[in-house]
Amino acid sequence: MKGYFQRAAAALQKYMIGRYGPDELVAALFVFSCILTFLSNFRPLRYLYFIAIAVLAIAVWRMLSKNIAKRSDERYKFLQLMEKPVAEFKLLKNRIRDRKTHKYFKCKNCGASLRIPKGKGKISVTCPKCRVKVTKNS
Ligand SMILES: [Zn+2]
C-alpha cells in the first residue's frame, strides 16, 4: 500500500512538471467555490451550484496551466487588488484587539492611521509617514 501511494505521488509530481500549480488566487477561488456551494443549499439560490462548479474548474485549470507567465500576471493583479482590503481588515483586527489599551486616529495631513496609548493625558506624536507633529488627548 505504501508503495502505491509513493508511485502515485511520483506520478503526480511528474505530471505537474512545467505546470503552474497552486497560488493565492487558486486558494481564493476554492474558498469562493465552497461559499457558493454552501449558499446553493438554499432553494432560491440553487443555480449557484453550477457557478461554484465553474469557479472550481477555473481554479483547477489555473493549477494545471502551462502558461506560467500569464498565470503569474493574474496572481500579481489579484494580490494588488486585495492589498487594500487586506490592510483594512488587519487594521480593524488590531483596533479590536487594542480597544482597551490604545486609541486610533487618522493623521490630518496624510491620512495614515496612528495609534497612541490610552490614559496618558495630552500626547504629542510625530506621524511616521509625513513627520507632522500632532497633539492628541489619549
Ligand atoms: Zn501623516
Low-confidence stretches: none
Report the sheet with the most strands, covering strand number, pairing sense and barrel closure.
2 strands, antiparallel
What topology, given as strand order, has the largest sheet?
A: 1-2
What is the string of helix and strand elements? Answer: HHHHEEEE
Count of runs of 4 or more consecutive helical residues? 4
Radius of gyration: 24 Å
Concise overview:
With 138 residues, the chain is α+β, with helices and mostly antiparallel strands. The protein is built from 4 helices and 4 strands; from the N terminus they run H-H-H-H-E-E-E-E. The longest helix is centred in the middle third of the chain and has 30 residues.
Strand and helix layout:
Elements: H1 2-15, H2 24-39, H3 48-64, H4 68-97, E1 102-106, E2 113-117, E3 122-126, E4 133-137
Antiparallel strand pairs: 1-2, 3-4
Helix pairs in contact: 2-3
This protein binds zinc ion (ZN).
Task: Explain what you see.
It is a single chain. The protein is of the alpha+beta class and 138 residues long. The longest helix has 30 residues, at 68-97. The strands form two sheets. A two-stranded antiparallel sheet has the order 1-2. Strand 1 (102-106) and strand 2 form a beta hairpin. It has helices at 2-15, 24-39, 48-64, 68-97, and strands at 102-106, 113-117, 122-126, 133-137. Bound molecules: zinc ion (ZN). Zinc ion is lined by residues 107, 109-110, 112, 127, 129-130, 132. Residues 107, 109-110, 112, 127, 129-130, 132 line the site of zinc ion.
